[in-house]
Structures are given as structure tokens and as C-alpha cells.
Design brief:
single chain, mainly alpha
């Protein structure tokens, strides 16, 4: 069998890969940026470790969202479970398109949530009692990752196979 005979499944697998890779890359960048800020704070005051760790972990959710859509996609197309479905190229492209929102938004929001978390870590460094308020800033960025997760989830599940 050639790739042309399986083009639908190739497109669908590409969609799952994009969801996982791009959202995961956004999380890796974001967690890294926040981790640099957190490390500086902990160097000065180790008692703030728990608070800054929470801030550092926030950008990691985008990678989890991408992974979730990747798993749902693989299950939908039969790679996990019953065997690969016989997809038309059009259906494969629809699945690819359904995976794009979490991939793209996950990449961008993960990066910017990391930057926002780093700034919030600065707040915690100077005023630890303002932790709750500081959490709101990176949480606002999270909103858009959740919206992208929702649209990718609904789109993938809405495609008839």
C-alpha cells in the first residue's frame, strides 16, 4: 500500500501530531521561562518555593490539552483500539483542521502564559501575600487555551467516520 492509498489517515495523524507537538512546545517554552524566574526567587528565599512552583506549572497545561486531543484523535481514527479506519482524504483533512486550534493556540498561549507567570512570580517575590491576585494574570491566558481545547474537542468528535 502506498501513502496515496492512505492519505486520509496520514492527514489525520498529522493533525494529532500537530496538536501534541505544537501545544507541547508552547508548554515547554512557557514552563522554561517561568522556571527561570522561579529559580531566581527561590535562590533569594527558599520558603517561596511552593508558590512559585505553582506559577511555573501553569503553562504546562497547554501540553496536556494537546496530548488529550492527540489521544482522542488516535482513538477516533482507530489507531488506539480497533485498527486504523479507512478515511477519505477529505475526512483526514477535516480531522487535521479540527486539531489545529489547540496546536496553534497551545503554542502561542503556552509561551505567553510562561511570560505572564514569570511576571506574576515577580509579584510573589516582593509581596507573597498577593499570591492569589498574581495567579489571576496567567490564569487569564489559560482561558484561551481552554477555548481552543473545547473547539478542537467538539470538532474532532463531530466528524463522522
Amino acid at each position: 500500500m502506498s501513502i496515496w492509498e492512505n492519505l486520509g489517515i496520514v492527514y489525520a495523524l498529522l493533525g494529532a501530531a500537530i496538536a501534541v507537538l505544537m501545544a507541547g512546545a508552547g508548554s515547554a517554552i512557557g514552563v522554561g521561562v517561568a522556571g527561570q524566574a522561579a529559580s531566581g526567587v527561590v535562590t533569594e528565599d527558599p520558603s517561596k518555593f511552593a508558590k512559585v512552583l505553582i506559577m511555573q506549572l501553569l503553562p504546562g497545561t497547554q501540553g496536556l490539552y494537546g496530548l488529550l486531543i492527540g489521544f482522542i484523535t488516535l482513538q477516533k481514527i482507530g489507531i488506539l483500539g480497533s485498527g486504523a479506519a479507512d478515511l477519505t482524504p477529505a475526512t483526514g483533512l477535516m480531522i487535521l483542521a479540527a486539531c489545529l486550534p489547540i496546536g496553534i493556540v497551545g503554542l502561542i498561549s503556552g509561551k505567553y502564559q510562561g511570560m505572564t507567570s514569570a511576571a506574576a512570580i515577580g509579584i510573589v517575590a516582593k509581596k507573597p501575600d498577593q499570591f492569589g491576585k498574581a495567579m489571576l494574570f496567567p490564569a487569564m491566558v489559560e482561558t484561551y487555551a481552554i477555548l481552543a481545547l473545547l473547539i478542537s474537542f467538539l470538532a474532532v468528535n463531530g466528524i463522522k467516520i
